[in-house]
C-alpha cells in the first residue's frame, strides 16, 4: 500500500517542476517581446508555448503532471512601419514578435499562483507528517 502523504508530496513536487518550467518559458517570451529579425524581411522571435500531460508515477502510484511539449505559437506576426529599421522589408515594414506582454503577465500570474498552491500542499503535508511523528513518539 502506498503512503498517501508521500504521494501528495510527489504530486505537488511535479506541479512545482511543471509550473517552474512554465515560468521560464513565459520569462523568455517577455524578454524577447521586442526581438526582431537581424536581416531585412526575416522573422522575429516566435512566442513559445507549453503544454502539460499526466503520467503514472509508479513509485507513488499516483498521477503526476509533466511538461508534454514546449512549442511555438504559429499566430501571425504584427507588422510595424519603420523603413529605417535594419529588418524592414522592401516596403518598409518590420515583422514584430507575436508576443503580447499583457497575456504573458496574466499567464505568469496564473503560473505563480499554481506554484504557490503546490508549495502550500507540500508545507501542509510536511506538517501532517511531523504531527504524525509526534503522536507516535508521544
Keyword list:
138 residues, alpha+beta, two-stranded antiparallel ribbon, 2 helices, 21% strand, elongated
Outline the structure in words.
The strands form 2 sheets. Strands 1-2 form a two-stranded antiparallel ribbon. A two-stranded antiparallel sheet has the order 3-4. Helix 1 runs antiparallel to helix 2 (101-137). 47% of the residues lie in helices and 21% in strands. The chain is built from 2 helices and 4 strands.
Q: How much strand?
A: 15-25%
- The value of Rg in angstroms is 22 Å
Shape: elongated
Helix-strand makeup class? alpha+beta
Q: Would you identify the regions where 5 or more consecutive residues have pLDDT less than 50? A: none
Largest sheet: 2 strands, antiparallel
Strand order of the largest sheet: 1-2
Helix content: 40-55%
Total beta strand runs: 4
Determine the number of helices (DSSP H or I, runs of at least 4 residues): 2
Separation, N- and C-terminal Cα atoms: 25 Å
Q: Taking all residues together, what is the mean pLDDT?
A: 94
Order of helices and strands: HEEEEH
